[in-house]
Structure formats: structure tokens, C-alpha cells
Amino acid sequence: MQDDVRKQKILIVDDEQDNIRILAEVLKGKYKLIGARSGEAAMKCVESDDLPDLILLDIMMPGMDGYEILRLLKSNPKTHDIPVIFVTAMGKEANEVKGFELGAVDYITKPISAPTVSARVRLHLELHYYRNHLEDEIFKRTEALRDSNKRVRKEITERRLAEEELKKHKDHLEEMVEIRTQELKTANELLKVENEERKRVEMKLQEAKTRLENLFEKEETARRAAEAANNKTMESIRYAKMIQSSLLPNPENMKKYLPDSFFIWMPRDIVGGDIIFADSFEDGMIIAIIDCTGHGVPGAFMTIIASSGMRRITKDEGCRDPAEILNRLNFIVKTSLHQDTEYALSNDGLDAAVCFIKPKLAYFTGSFSLTYAGARLPLIYLQNNVPTVVKGDRQSIGYKHSDLEFVYRNHTVKIEKGMSFYMASDGYSDQLGEKDDRRLGSKRFLELLRENAALGFSEQREKLLQAFNEHKGKKERQDDITVVGFSFDI
User: Fold this and answer.
1) What is the C-alpha separation between 324 and 410, in angstroms, rounded?
2) Contacts by residues 299-304 (CB-CB < 8 Å, ≥ 24 positions apart)
3) Which among 222, 239, 256 is the end of a domain?
4) Strand partners, 420
5) Is residue 191 in a domain?
6) Are 367 and 306 in contact (CB under 8 A)?
7) Any idea what the CATH number is for the domain that residue 276 is in?
8) Structural domain tally of the chain?
9) In terms of domains, do 440 and 293 share one?
10) Within a domain: 393
11) What tens digit of pLDDT does each residue of 264-318 get?
């Protein structure tokens, strides 16, 4: 077993700082932990003489991915034997098989289970230690046996020379026979000692084998417990999706106020960090999209804060002004997470685009308009098949660095016949393609809107999804996807 003179060293490689922090929280105090946020940084960490005892490696990273890092590690004799565990959101069986074929010792799927991570890290560190220890023991015993064989061969050679000498010197035959017999007895005693040593090594190997079998049995028990825990977690997350879906606007109500519209809401995981907010009032309608920090469960928690804040501002406080809504939402998110203090543990926030539309009765005034304000998310409208991008303020909401004194600006767009409006989070345009590994991009997104503007909104939605899936191919989806489109019958 590893002694306490030196803590075992673990290298955590992940491009997401939050993922490194989560793993560090699970393993802190037990091991010496270092982190790297890219493949290049990870390779620098293993260039020193103080190699890590184990590496926790993400697969999907910009630049050098986890598979390439593993290939480099296994091709280097210095790092070949370091055990590598993949910790990744890529949970398909093919990804897992590929990881094992490249030399990974284990595969942990995100979101992680702390007991699973602790158990598997402990298991593979012990296996790594015992393997190295056994290799050292076998090497020592092999060298000792080799030396013994050399001595025996030397003795045999000397005996042969002695016998030849006896033939030449018959007078000394009896004396030489007695001498050589004594020498052979000594050699036999040495062989006996070596035999006993070999048996002792074999016993130790058997003991080590038994310990390994026990460890494997414990690992299987831990795996089953982790699988049960994971199933329970997945049930909870699926229920959380139902809760998050209930926060979305009612499609029937939306069609009542915006009959010409479509909505795309596709979380990257079961739940996500994007949310659509819409509500109608006597004096008009609010529609907004909100892109929160991260995705999955952390992002979903942020959408609950954002959705609750929007309802408080628009319903309880009666605010309809988009810029003022963003100002108040900035205050609510930042103070709710205590990110206005020095002791805040998190640094999370969101980007948003908010529109206020007056009721249909106002269409006959001759000055029908839409008011928009944005926190890094734009409003796009098409008129005569020409797209115009109305950019929001370059100031996100709720983060530690977000300024509570910042004042968001309203933009007013006069609504004319044939105009259509769109809002989207950055997940659509940031998607990497299967063929060239390049972003779909804002320019291509605008082209798709222009190409399909003459179609009905249901058809526009299908065209956007078709183009997205063709670009993505078999590539993993990078982020949550949210797109809203609508127009007015005037």
C-alpha cells in the first residue's frame, strides 16, 4: 500500500473550470491535485520529473481533444504507464470503447457521481501501485536468479576444467574429487536457497493476485451502487425536465397573441440553461429569450432564478419597459446569488433579449411599434427580405463583474407590413460542423432566415432544424438551442 510520505498526485484535464472544481471538491484532502484546461497545458504538466500517478481526462476540448492527449501519453515511454480515466459527457458506447482501445483504464460519464469517482480513483491508484511494486519485486528476483545461474554455470565450468585437470594429474584425483564435491554441495545449497526464494516470490504473487481479486470484487460492488445512484439521479433529472418545461410559455396562449410564430427550444442535455419567457397583459405582451451560464442541471437552476425574476418584475411589479426589466433582473440575479459580495462562491449570470409589444388595438394608431432591449443577445428583423440586426448592450446580467449601475437601452422598431422578427441564443450559430469542424456562424443563420422568410413559420422552423442537423451531422451538440420567430398581421 502507498505510504503517507508523499500524497499521490492526480492531474485533472478539462476545458471547463467548473468541471475541474467539481472533481477537486470530491478528491480534495486525499491527493495532491493539479488542473489543466487544455491538452497543451496537460502535456506541459507531464514533462516534469514529478509525474502524476493518475490522470482524469475530458474528451471534448477545443484544440487537442482527450483522445489525442491519450495517444501522446501512450506513445511516450515516460508516461505510458500512467493510468488515465476519461471523465466526459460523451456517454455513447462507441466513445467508451474507443477510450479503452486507446489505453484508458476507466470511463466515467458526466454528470459525475462523487462516490463513483472516489471509488474508481482509489481503485486504479491502488492497482497502479501494486503493479509497479510487483514489477520491481519480479525484476529484483529475476536479477538474483540470473546471478545465481551465472554462479552455477561458473561452477560447472570449473568442474569441467577440474575433471580435465584430473585426467592430467591422476595423483591428485581423490583430493580434487573431494574439493569439487564440496564445491558442488555448496552450489546445491545455493540452489536450494534460490529455490526457497523463488517459492516465497510465488507466494507473494499469489497473495497479490488474491488482493487484486478482492479489489475487483469491491469495484464491481461500487459500480453497481453507482449505477443505482445514477439511475436515481437520471429519474430526478427527467422529472426536473418536466418542471422546467412547465416554465415555458403555453403554446396555445402564444398562438392566441402571436398566431404567426415558431419556437425552437432544445436543451443540450435533458435539462438546459436556455428559457423562453412570454406573458400577456392588458397593456401588451412580453416575449424574451434567456441564455444562462452553462447547460444541464446547473444551467436549469439558473433558468428557474431567471424565470422567477421575470415573473416578479412583470407581474408583481408591473414593469413593461424592456430596458428596465433587464436593469431589475441584473439586480435580482446578482443579489440572489450574493455575487455582489466578496464572499460569493459562484460567478454565474445570463444573456437576454426582451421585447414588449402593445395589444392589437394599437395597430390602428398608425404608429404600431415594438420595443426591444438586449444583454448581448440581438433582435433580428427582416423587411423586404433584407435582414437587420439590432444589437443589445454588451453587458451580461448577474455576474460578479456585471455593473449594478449599468443602464440598459431600449430600441424601438416601427412595425410595417411583411416584417418578421427573430431572437436566438448563441447555441445555434456556435454549433461545430461534422465535415470541417467550423461554426455554423451568424452569417449563415441570417442567410437561412432570409432564404426562408417567405415560408410559413412552421415551415421556417423545419428549415432551420434541417439546416442545423445537416451542419452538425454526427457531431455532438455544443450548447442549448433556442430560436423564436414571429410576425404581425397588419
Assistant:
1) 9
2) 299/271, 299/272, 299/273, 299/274, 299/480, 300/240, 300/244, 300/267, 300/271, 300/272, 300/273, 302/273, 302/348, 302/349, 302/350, 303/244, 303/247, 303/272, 303/273, 303/274, 303/275, 304/244, 304/247
3) 239
4) 382, 487
5) yes
6) no
7) 3.60.40.10
8) 3
9) yes
10) yes
11) 999 998 888 899 999 988 888 999 999 998 888 888 888 999 999 999 999 999 9
